[in-house]
Design a protein that fits this description.
With 667 residues, this protein is of the alpha+beta class. The protein contains twelve helices and 27 strands. It has a five-stranded antiparallel β-sheet with strand order 1-3-4-2-5, with helices on both faces. Strands 9, 10, 11, 12 and 15 form a five-stranded antiparallel β-sheet that branches. GO terms for molecular function: peroxidase activity.
Length: 667
């Protein structure tokens, strides 16, 4: 991460140089040049130490210096560059990674910067401060990249259907299931077509295009010295002028992001939403960062090296902007003939229903007749909820925002009540996309002029972070956006997402004298995948270990995790599981029991508590077996490829079970 005065006006800036300097030193080295503060009003008084401690206790993830930035605290820069890297020599790659470590942005740095920026912007009544700029850096590694750096397989075992399997196979192998066929098939990709090619994705983002370009060149030289090859360079930038913050189809992007427990302040009235954003639910941090509590306290089942990191999906999505807008005219004519669209509706009216929002971001659900531009600071999703629109008469069921996040409007069959909003919390992802390529000319209403299409490459660099590739990213794509029969059991079927999904007929449902009607529209595909990578964004400690050629592949059971019957934590040589009879069992790789808790017929789950105790619980929460290790808040439960399960407090062993001949039995 670099901070320095900017010679040109910058869009994304910080108020005080001290914030940059503190951020630079927080990664364990590095310096930052001092720069004049922005005259944005009187300086805020320094927070009292007790206030800082209280804030850190209430929102500990904001002070996290071990996780990389851009996962929970978005870089949010106007200019970005992603370098897709192939290493030719493991030793050189480790040395390069070690040299990169001081430059990597961490959550606390980015969160502090963004808070300062937001405060300065409020003081300027919505105008971005200038005078200073910042450059962020982040690194993620693919499965082959991790294996190369560590000289070992990153997973002791890969279970069918798991996120480890998806990660090991890579995006190209799983392309067909995700709809990446035909023009989107891997054989036409610019990067990621071969699982063995890309080892790392280096993300650089900054306020100033010139300074970012200089940083990219510097990193390219460093990679060349390390005998690494840059397979592809993806430059990207926010669109200019009135389209700033929008994607190429012309709609404000990345509006709806999940709140994260421990990072975003909760509203004391609800406890389930973000303070000041009543439309944003708080989701457990373990859905985005491995090692924290997940929805339902489910086990992550991942190795130690994954703790504090996040799976990183990168997709280059080309957009045929003129084609997408051109199809609207024919579809709108059909809706008008059927009486499903007002006589004075224009293509912008239909485009907004395909997205679910007007171009400026306001949901169609809350202002169906005409667009209302949100005022600065307004939570435009505050009243957004689809539970009172089960048939999609206001926001179509195929609308992009409903297909990708049904909120409280998901019904399993027509006529049934919608599921609670919390039932889809485990499907949320954090998106960090940014456009690439020049925009097309638009008229005064923002409608694209198809004649201005110059054939330039344009689209979106889709980026998402999630703790489970299968249950989050892939589930959304396969079961929601690309699934014609979602929401399920409707006649005619709803159709695929008309913004990012494949070509399909879609049912535009609307009220009628006899209760309702469906007008079938034919939506074509105007978004094409041109590259994709599955990577992982490790924590700084994990990267430091990798730079030394080390990778801890023991399976970690994080505090607050609950094992339910059928859950298996597989370390290859041994696996810990709760069987269907309620017995906690350590098995070898032939499924022979090496140790059991003796709770057959009694246990309903196994819980690893915040103070380090593993216990099997009966119905009602009564403990029927315990490891006897309570009172250790730093305890870790590991299932190790060496053949044992162990609870450690630091280097001290509190409890252990192992195979015979390896000190078997409970201790």
């Amino acid at each position: 991460m670099e901070c320095s005065p900017s010679p040109h006006p910058a869009r994304r800036t910080v108020v005080r140089a001290g914030a940059c300097a503190a951020a630079a030193f927080a990664v364990g080295g590095g310096t930052a040049a001092a720069a004049p503060a922005v005259a944005a009003g009187p300086p805020a008084p320094a927070a009292a130490p007790e206030a800082v401690s209280r804030a850190a206790a209430e929102l500990p993830l904001r002070a996290d210096a071990s996780t990389q930035g851009d996962i929970l605290a978005g870089f949010r820069k106007d200019h970005a560059c992603l370098l897709f890297v192939h290493f030719r020599d493991a030793g050189q790659a480790r040395r390069w990674l070690g040299a990169l470590l001081p430059e990597l942005a961490t959550t606390d740095q980015v969160a502090r910067f963004n808070a300062e920026f937001s405060k300065a912007r409020r003081l300027r009544k919505g105008v971005d401060p200038t005078r200073m700029s910042v450059l962020w850096a982040g690194i993620s590694l693919t499965y082959p990249g991790l294996a190369l750096l560590a000289d070992k397989d990153p997973f002791p075992a890969v279970r069918a259907g798991s996120t480890a399997e998806a990660f090991a196979e890579g995006a190209a192998t799983r392309a067909e299931a995700l709809g990446d066929t035909g023009p989107s098939a891997p054989d036409g990709w610019l990067f990621g077509a071969s699982q063995d090619e890309v080892h790392a994705v280096l993300t650089l983002a900054g306020d100033d295009a010139r300074r970012l370009a200089e940083a990219v060149e510097r990193h390219e030289r460093a990679l060349d010295r390390a005998q690494a090859a840059v397979l592809f360079r993806q430059d990207a930038a926010t669109l200019p002028d009135a389209l700033r913050g929008h994607e190429h189809f012309g709609f404000l992007d990345a509006i709806s992001q999940p709140g994260v427990r421990g990072f975003d302040a909760p509203d004391p009235q609800s406890g389930t939403t973000v303070l000041g954003k009543p439309g944003t639910r708080l989701v457990p941090a373990g859905e985005f960062l491995v090692g924290h509590e997940k929805v339902g306290q489910r086990p992550a089942g991942l190795p130690v090296w994954a703790t504090g990191g996040s799976f990183h999906v990168v997709r280059r999505l080309a957009q045929d902007v003129a084609g997408w807008w051109d199809q609207l005219g024919e579809c709108l004519d059909r809706l008008k003939r059927s009486g499903a669209a007002p006589a004075d509706a224009d293509t912008r009216w239909l485009a907004s229903r395909m997205v679910g929002r007007w171009p400026g971001g306001a949901p169609v659900a809350t202002c169906p007749a005409a667009e209302r531009i949100p005022v600065p600071g307004e939570d435009i999703d505050g009243p957004l909820d689809f539970h009172d629109d089960p048939n999609g008469w206001t926001t179509p069921l195929f609308a992009h925002i409903r297909k990708s996040n049904p909120r409280a409007g998901l019904t399993l069959a027509p006529g049934r009540p919608p599921l609670p909003a919390g039932d889809v919390d485990a499907r949320r992802i954090i998106r960090r996309g940014i456009p690439f390529g020049p925009p097309l000319r638009r008229d005064a209403r923002g409608v694209v002029d198809g004649r201005s299409d110059d054939g330039s490459a344009r689209g979106l660099v889709f980026v998402s972070h999630q703790a489970d590739l299968v249950e989050q990213f892939e589930f959304i794509v396969k079961r929601w956006t690309n699934e014609r029969d979602f929401p399920p059991a409707r006649h005619p079927v709803t159709g695929c997402d008309p913004v990012i999904g494949p070509a399909s007929p879609a049912a535009f449902e609307s009220p009628s004298a006899d209760g309702g009607r469906a007008t079938t529209l034919a939506f074509q595909q105007f978004v094409r995948t041109e590259g994709a990578v599955y990577a992982f964004t490790p924590s700084v400690p994990a990267l430091r270990a990798l730079a030394a050629g080390k990778l801890d592949t023991a399976i970690e059971v994080h505090r607050g995790t609950v094992l339910r019957p059928g859950d298996v934590l597989d370390a290859g040589a041994v696996r810990l599981l709760l069987d269907t009879d309620g017995d906690l069992v350590l098995q070898d790789d032939q499924e022979r029991a090496l140790w059991t808790s003796g709770t057959t017929g009694k246990g309903v789950d196994a819980y690893f508590s915040a103070d380090g105790e593993l216990r099997v619980r009966a119905a009602g929460g009564r403990t029927v077996w315990s490891s006897g290790t309570a009172g250790h808040e730093d305890a870790r439960l590991l299932v190790r490829p060496s053949g044992d399960a162990v609870i450690l407090a630091g280097d001290r062993r509190l409890w252990r079970v192992a195979a015979p001949g390896r000190g078997g039995g409970a201790r």
